[in-house]
Amino acid sequence: MTDLQRHLEQFQWGRLPFDLFALEKWNSSSAEDDEAQRTRLAFEYVNMGCLGRSVYYGAIQEKRFANPTQSQIDNILRPWQTDHQRMLSLFNNSFVWLRTCYKPGSDDLHVKLLSSLAPRDLAEVVGSSDNVSYVLDDSSLYDYGSDWLRIFVRIPELPQGYGPRGESAVTGYHKAIREAQVEAIREFGEDEIEDLEEPDYTDMQSRCVTNFFFVEDEESLHTGKVLIVWLDECGRTIRQCRILPADASDVVGIQYSPGLFECLPQWLDGEVGAAYLTGGICGPPYAPD
């Protein structure tokens, strides 16, 4: 079976991991309107992380699922995602360019920003290499303003990216930090550990990155810079910064090599997401086991 044939087979309704989750959780008798239920379930799926979603990935890989009925396709799955969004769910380890601003006069600036990409990046993002466009550019679908998190409702697979299918990168991150703390206590003693400088979490944070994407928002139109957001497995922002499209190659080239993030100025200078700040759900302080 060729790659294209395999992708077309996966593209069929009921063949995505999120399809299984949506069909399992959808409540046709819910008091919520359909859009509210879609939003709630999509973020529930995203928040499960890689380990939680592995159940559905495993079922797809092992073909342990029933084909949806036509009614389920028409009433649950088809209104949830366009064909393009479903295709990007299959190719979720390639960077997405999300346009969220459609103010008058922004069309020409949008074209200018895209054309500023290096030729290789432009070819990848507009889809000339595999006929899949990674540009999300539709005012009826993506007029999010600054609320770009809404993209997870339409492409809940986006945070999965190239993350692990059966383990948690964030759990590994915490484990590595605790191990470092235990080693410090062993070397310096518990009484002295509080006087040590706060460790640099940059490398450990980079190992939690499962995907990234570019956001072209209103600020991009004023500055000529797009926002790059590095995500963890639960869709939380690890770091973000603004870059010129011409510099996108530097960012794209290291995504599969976490150990190289410390060589990337855009990562080092990026703003740490709230979840990874001190006191955040993924941030310090960390108590050793």
Description:
- The chain is α/β, with parallel strands linked by helices.
- It contains 16 helices and 6 strands.
- It has helices at 3-11, 17-25, 34-47, 49-61, 70-77, 83-90, 106-115, 119-126, 139-142, 151-154, 169-188, 190-193, 202-206, 218-223, 248-252, 265-268; strands at 96-99, 135-136, 211-216, 226-231, 237-243, 271-272.
- The longest helix has 20 residues, at 169-188.
- It is globular and about 65 Å long.
Quick structural gist:
45% of the residues lie in helices and 9% in strands. The protein is α/β, with parallel strands linked by helices. A hairpin with a 5-residue loop joins strand 4 (226-231) and strand 5.
Distance between the termini: 48 Å
Fraction in helix: 40-55%
Low-confidence regions: none
Largest sheet features: 6 strands, mixed
Which class of secondary structure composition applies to the elements?
A: alpha/beta
Q: Residue-averaged pLDDT, rounded?
A: 84
Question: How many strands appear in the DSSP assignment?
Answer: 6
Q: Tell me the number of helical segments per DSSP (H or I, 4 or more residues long).
A: 16
Question: What descriptive keywords fit this protein?
Answer:
single chain, 289 residues, alpha/beta, 6-stranded mixed β-sheet, 45% helix, 9% strand, globular
Helix-strand blueprint:
Layout: H1 3-11, H2 17-25, H3 34-47, H4 49-61, H5 70-77, H6 83-90, E1 96-99, H7 106-115, H8 119-126, E2 135-136, H9 139-142, H10 151-154, H11 169-188, H12 190-193, H13 202-206, E3 211-216, H14 218-223, E4 226-231, E5 237-243, H15 248-252, H16 265-268, E6 271-272
Parallel strand pairs: 1-2, 1-3
Antiparallel strand pairs: 3-4, 4-5, 5-6
Helix pairs in contact: 2-4
